[in-house]
Amino acid sequence: MTFFSIKPLPESRGGLPLLVQADDGIDLLASQQELRELIDQHLERCGGVLLRGFDVGEAERFRAFAAAFGDPLLNYEFGSTPRSNVTAGVYTSTEYPPHQHIPLHNEQAYTREWPMRIWFYCVQAAQSGGETPIADSRVIYRQVGEAIRRRFSERGLMYVRNFGNGLDVAWEQVFNSSDRAVVEAYCRAHQIDCEWKDDGELRTRQRCQAVARHPRTGDWVWFNQAHLFHVSNLPAEVRESLLEIVDEDDLPRNVYYGDGSPIEESLLDDIRGVLAEATVSFPWCSGDVLMLDNMLTAHARAPFSGPRKVIVAMAQGHGLDLL
């Protein structure tokens, strides 16, 4: 017997996200089979499903729910932000200070491999703020305009990262190893150019996609993090301060066209405008579980006050061979 209802979320746009509302806090795991059938039917149409009012419980039960969809949960490899492991295959959301806004992005779109599915579990909603805004990547693809789409898709993107030195995540954490040989082997396997700098820190370069096609739905999506990695994403005072102490090549992260030429900031401003227009934002309720198709739907994080705990699981790795 079904103990939940399906209805539009008041803040939704184009059906994103689909709200599944439980009756009287029914057990999430006990509802797994019905929910899986429902999600399999709707996820790749609407891009995201919000489960609300279910009894989820501890992180291990969240892990079991995500794993029951049939794919092994993924480790957070070659990550770009600080996270902590909660339990096997479950991580904290990005551990940036509460006042910082994290722009819309598709998880790991700055590399050639990414999870197709991602789950968020709001263990504790913030006192104020702390939403996880989302947006339809198909809409973004259409709205950026043909000229920008063509320019970015034909030229591709090159992400440059400099690890450590107190400015960004240490390479040992990103690669889960302090062995240089392990790092070099990972980079070779994933077509990442790497170099060890004179100070012992690591620089990587990787050429990646700007747009991508969903392997099952055939939808074209805007799929990159150029607007987030580019130096213009930094507040002006932070950008100026960093460039006083390091050369542009040594910034913690930056992005160029695939041939290494600079991206016009005006185009990135246009793209940020499209992202803002496509954003759907709703307040978390403690106990919410949000499941996204990571290619169809981008996500972000709003600033917040008070304690907030959102944990994340990812599965179904996918990638493109650009060579």
UniProtKB/TrEMBL annotation:
Pfam families: TauD. Residues 12-313 form the TauD/TfdA-like domain. InterPro entries: AlphaKG_dependent_hydroxylases, TauD-like_sf, TauD/TfdA-like. Keywords: Antibiotic biosynthesis, Dioxygenase, Oxidoreductase. Its cofactor is Fe(2+). PANTHER family: GAMMA-BUTYROBETAINE HYDROXYLASE-RELATED (PTHR10696), TAUD_TFDA-LIKE DOMAIN-CONTAINING PROTEIN (PTHR10696:SF56). This is TauD/TfdA family dioxygenase. It comes from Pseudomonas berkeleyensis.
